[in-house]
Specification:
Strand order of the largest sheet: 6-5-1-7-8-9
Largest sheet: 6 strands, mixed
Number of helices: 11
Low-confidence stretches: 296-303
Length: 303
């Protein structure tokens, strides 16, 4: 059983990832209607990247009968079919056969190998446990056996260093513990929305928010919760005697702008000891995205 005690010399880097078209190009489709040249509305199944380009074009695109709930039916948990898991596996298998992965795919791989905490923040509506299961699938498909061994050695090193652990559980138990310390937020999930609505600050923000701005507010809320989680965890286990940084990546330019402004306006002032970086991965010609916002002097390699 390997334990990497070398993690004691590391700084603290944490990561927040959007999922679709940032980590994986998922085959999940949004069920819309498109108006043809003859004026007739017909079904159109759109990828998330295409939807991001046309969602404001209400003259030519609209949700089907049943509204937005029906349009995003496959982005919710379904007891009849585990769509998210099936589509995650399909996306990973395409990468194994040569397809180019999302721009933050390798950054998530490195995060897992190094045993660093992370959050998944997605516009989907799945339960947190569903997203965690997808991360487990990612570990199984994307990491080699040697990389998984490296991950486990790092996880035991962190447990010995920060949790003062003298003995360790099985690999499965240690992985369970690690993934339980990470965060998974699907911001259109009903449980997530209820938690956000019960927060005093975000209850006030939601009261004056436009429909279009609500998804961006939800991502703010999820990001704030992860930053608070990291802050309190460090207070409890170690302190702030070395560099602490948090990187966020998203392929939606609107989300990138909103999160960048939120970091400048609120998070960087409230958490002065934490350095923040935001990466825009919306340009498919840039393999690792574009750094658009920095709070403090920081460069996160691999993004």
């Amino acid at each position: 059983m390997k334990v990497n005690d070398g993690v004691r010399t590391r700084d603290f880097k944490y990561y927040i990832f959007d999922w679709d078209d940032n980590i994986l190009h998922m085959p999940t489709r949004i069920r819309m209607e498109r108006r043809g040249e003859d004026g007739v509305w017909r079904e159109a199944l759109l990828s998330t990247s295409t939807f991001a380009l046309v969602r404001a074009d209400t003259e030519n695109y609209r949700p089907p009968p049943g509204g937005w709930l029906e349009a995003f039916r496959d982005f919710q948990d379904n007891p009849a079919r585990d769509t998210f898991m099936d589509d995650t596996i399909a996306a990973l298998e395409r990468i194994a056969h040569g397809e180019v992965p999302g721009p933050s795919y390798n950054a998530l791989k490195r995060t897992l190998r190094e045993g660093r905490l992370f959050a998944i923040v997605t516009a989907r509506g799945h339960e947190a446990k569903t997203i965690e299961r997808a991360v487990r699938v990612f570990i199984r498909y994307a990491l080699t056996e040697a990389e998984r061994e490296e991950m486990m050695a790092n996880l035991r090193g962190y447990r010995r260093w920060l949790d003062k652990a003298e003995t360790f559980g099985t690999d499965a138990e240690e992985l369970d513990y690690y993934l339980s310390m990470c965060r998974y937020s699907a911001v259109t999930n009903e449980r997530f929305k209820a938690r956000m609505a019960s927060d005093p600050i975000y209850r006030e923000k939601l009261a004056v928010a436009t429909t279009a701005s609500r998804p961006e507010l939800a991502k703010e809320f999820a990001i704030r919760n992860f930053v608070e989680h990291v802050f309190h965890l460090l207070q409890r286990t170690h302190g702030f005697d070395r560099s602490v940084s948090i990187g966020f990546s998203d392929d939606d330019a609107g989300n990138v702008k909103a999160v960048s402004n939120y970091i400048r306006r609120e998070l960087s002032r409230r958490f002065e000891g934490i350095k923040f970086v935001v990466y825009d991965t919306s340009d498919p010609t840039l393999s690792k995205g574009r750094k658009v916002c920095v709070s403090g002097q920081l460069n996160l390699p691999g993004f």
